[in-house]
Amino acid sequence: MHRRVKILGSGAFLPSRKVRSEELAKELGLEKDRIEKMSGVIERHYVEEETTSQMGAFAAQEALKNANLKFSDIDCIISTGGTIEQIVPATAPLIKEAMGEVESKIPCFDINSTCLSFITGLDVISYLIEAGRYEKVLVVSSEIASKFLNSKQLESYALFGDGAGAAVIGKSESGDDSKIIASKMETYIKGVHLTEIRGGATGLHARNYSNETKEEFLFDMDGPKVFKLARKYANDFIEQLLTEAGLKKEDIDLLVGHQASGSAMKLVYNKLLGFPSHKVMNILSNHGNVVAASIPLALNEAIKQKKLRRGDKVLFFGAGAGLSFGGIILEY
Amino acid sequence: MHRRVKILGSGAFLPSRKVRSEELAKELGLEKDRIEKMSGVIERHYVEEETTSQMGAFAAQEALKNANLKFSDIDCIISTGGTIEQIVPATAPLIKEAMGEVESKIPCFDINSTCLSFITGLDVISYLIEAGRYEKVLVVSSEIASKFLNSKQLESYALFGDGAGAAVIGKSESGDDSKIIASKMETYIKGVHLTEIRGGATGLHARNYSNETKEEFLFDMDGPKVFKLARKYANDFIEQLLTEAGLKKEDIDLLVGHQASGSAMKLVYNKLLGFPSHKVMNILSNHGNVVAASIPLALNEAIKQKKLRRGDKVLFFGAGAGLSFGGIILEY
Fold it and tell me: B309 touching A, CB under 8 A?
């Protein structure tokens, strides 16, 4: 079912500290180009003092500005991040606070499917906008992955970065063709333990932190197995999504996908799914994998670089811990 | 806007370990009845070996059974808990795994507004069911509050318990009057720091756990201030929700509210909002405040005790960290 929603504006925030792959390689005593070669990342950003909610607020403010809107035009905020700020409350109220909107009563809540959260949030909230429950919604993904990096797991250590991306979503005016044409999500439990940060919440409380357990509180990712599962399911998933949309692969003008890793993007987006490189938005080399913020950051760059124009058909697609796939085909 | 959705079944799970208020009082060197008097809780459950996802799975299985459905009838699982199991992935995939459904591809994601999560989840997913995106959805709130209790904060220490509640939500068949009549959510940022578990995620990583910081990883709740804010906004909130529903307070057959605390329930539900005690579902005394699981647990008891019958108008209402209010008026 189509939902007549429109991306009214997007925004980004990146922490000022840039970390080049050479630095990480040096720190770990590896050959100079090892980290870049394995990850496809030249540089990524790490926070210094910035918090999840502050970064989210900056990205949200920029999205509002780019949409020519004020905060008072917004009637809901959803945080769609994988690395939350606190166990309680949810991150969305903290973002509203960081925006300085102390008097506002608009609802704030989180939708979480790790790296897929932005897609899930956009997909879910589109039904509420279509039905008239909300007019204009801020969808914000803000991520601090750097606090969970494990230098013993080179693959994820090489890959992740911090940052925030946001978008304002609203109803399409009559005469405007912007819409979600189709969307889909699936969760494959065989991959549920392939990407984890096990510690920090009820599963393993912080009081259990010790020299023996410390890796339980960091990213634990089995990239090759994730990739194997992704390869198993990706083609069918995209075919079903395209069928639901009544479209062919060639009809897609731009793939704005999760920036999972250099090889995954090349092998899945180009080789397996058959999207040519010029149709795949790629911001990996200077952002790294920014968890759920990857997709709104890539969207924001696509708009800025005019790779995405009104009327274009964009495919949002990604995999997230779970293991889940999510996809949206949207007429921008 | 009405959404033609129906609660098809509900389920509950409580850990086997019961903890009486006398025990807690003794442990803290207080008068025997002090904990019970201040909280209104006689006994609550604490987990021993049970995990968040296991408890959620048990409650979900019971909800399926009570709805006369099989897992294969379900096409989405939402976890709506405030105390998550892991930082990554979300809790919903872990619940699907705990249900043993390894081959299932149905999507699993989390919706989080702390104590309000069940209401927010039910509210949000009703639009997707109304639109035909999903047919039957498991909404599961599973909470382990006991791992975050701080014996220096008597109010919350006295109050919280563990457990899980779940419901299966589906589309109303034609000729069936079950529906959501109205719903509403607001977030008041003045209350954003009044209920917190600050540590465990990006705000304060577990590596910062120490004897000096340990309370940052536990509940920090300013009950009197939450209550003051709640009292300020509750009446207007409920009046607006009733107006949207075209109903009067007297039309509500049962209030299934968050089991916040004995005094809050009496002062807000009875005195401030004017619902007589026999119309207020109260499971506090033998459950405690079970965070987001309070409402589905109270719903399950209301159905079991036949306090809620088909055709009744039920008001779900609660406050959650944020501080947020959420409410749904539903014809059961």
Answer: no
